[in-house]
């Protein structure tokens, strides 16, 4: 892979840097051009060339010298240090009569998302993973949110009079409800976009020694994404379960999982995540 070439353009008083990777031109930029009238100018020009080469290496991908110093990523997970966070498996998304069901129906059916999530939870419980069911909910008059905030998330809920605690709309998906002996966690309803917003979830997970979190639910492009980025910023190792989430806009969600989520998480299938836990359990 070549770094590119630096071409003088004295007629414009500048250098043109053309970066190349795999034969494609990319990373073009210019810098002031200096002539050889003085030693000082020559030194300045050479310094500029060196700076350009360094910048190109950073932008276009230098040899993997720095990457070789990184520790390897985990191939196994300790179930006792891992939580499965499920976001908003509630009536609007999981029931055909729910207000948001139509938006996610295609993904629910194509992925068999609900049935597979039930299977996922059963397996996670059996391995000793902490299963966390995060819900959205507000008081009857929405006193806990700011209706003047220009962001549309809470204003939309107020206009629709949606997600009021104690109503059918905030009811949970029955097949995911815990049974006697299960140690699932149901935090207080969230009133922010992230699962960590207003729920005390971070403090609870810290107290239980949780290091790794896997996230699924609704929706890939809104609350699940907010939860993933929030968890990353809080220092958790985050696994985004692509089989267990659906988005309002499927095409956008797929692009996010491909191009954006990897910045904050490891995007992984349910089966591959469970396999990491099984390897971790076997080595304990």
Characterize the largest beta sheet: strand count, sense, and whether it forms a barrel: 5 strands, parallel
Instruction: Please identify, by name, the CATH architecture of the largest domain.
Output: 3-Layer(aba) Sandwich
Low-confidence stretches: 20-49, 52-63
Tell me, what's the shape?
Answer: globular
By DSSP, the count of extended strands is: 8
CATH class identity of the largest domain: Alpha Beta
Instruction: Count the domains.
Output: 2
Q: What is the N-to-C order of secondary-structure elements (H for helix, E for strand)?
A: EEEHEHHHEHHEHEHEH
- Helix/strand-derived class? alpha/beta
Note the topology.
Elements: E1 5-9, E2 14-21, E3 24-32, H1 39-60, E4 82-87, H2 91-94, H3 101-111, H4 113-127, E5 130-134, H5 152-160, H6 201-207, E6 212-218, H7 223-233, E7 237-246, H8 250-260, E8 266-268, H9 270-282
Parallel strand pairs: 4-5, 4-6, 6-7, 7-8
Antiparallel strand pairs: 1-2, 2-3
Helix pairs in contact: 4-9
Can you offer a commentary on this structure?
It is built from nine helices and eight strands. The chain has 284 residues and is of the alpha/beta class. The protein folds into two domains: 5-68, no CATH class; 79-282, Rossmann fold. The strands form two sheets. Strands 5-4-6-7-8 form a five-stranded parallel beta sheet, sandwiched between helices. Strands 1-2-3 form a three-stranded antiparallel beta sheet, covered by helices on one side. α7 links the parallel β6 (212-218) and β7 (237-246). It is globular. The two termini are 44 Å apart. Mean pLDDT is 84; it is low at 20-49 and 52-63.
């Amino acid at each position: 892979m070549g770094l590119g070439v630096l071409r003088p353009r004295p007629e414009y008083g500048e250098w043109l840097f053309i970066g190349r990777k795999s034969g494609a031109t990319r990373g073009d930029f210019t810098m002031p051009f200096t002539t050889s009238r003085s030693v000082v100018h020559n030194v300045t020009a050479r310094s500029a060339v060196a700076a350009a080469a360094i910048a190109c290496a950073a932008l276009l991908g230098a040899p993997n010298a720095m990457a070789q110093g990184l520790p390897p990523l985990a191939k196994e997970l300790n179930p006792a240090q891992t939580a499965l966070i499920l976001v908003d498996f509630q009536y609007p998304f999981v029931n055909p009569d729910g207000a948001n069901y139509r938006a996610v129906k295609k993904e629910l059916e194509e992925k068999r998302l609900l049935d597979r999530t039930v299977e996922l939870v059963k397996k996670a419980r059996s391995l000793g993973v902490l299963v966390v069911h995060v819900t959205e909910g507000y008081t009857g008059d929405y006193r806990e949110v700011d209706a003047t905030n220009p962001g549309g998330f809470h204003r939309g809920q107020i206009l629709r009079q949606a997600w009021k605690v104690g109503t059918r709309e905030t009811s949970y998906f029955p097949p995911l409800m815990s049974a006697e002996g299960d140690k699932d966690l149901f935090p207080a309803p969230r009133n922010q976009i992230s699962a960590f917003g207003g729920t005390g979830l971070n403090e609870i997970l810290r107290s239980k020694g949780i290091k790794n979190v896997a996230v699924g639910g609704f929706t890939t492009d809104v609350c699940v994404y907010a939860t993933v980025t929030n968890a990353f910023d809080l220092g958790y190792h985050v696994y985004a379960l692509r089989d267990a989430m659906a988005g309002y806009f499927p095409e956008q969600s797929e692009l996010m999982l491909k191009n954006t989520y990897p910045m904050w998480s490891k995007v992984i299938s349910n089966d591959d995540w469970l396999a990491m836990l099984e390897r971790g359990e076997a080595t304990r």
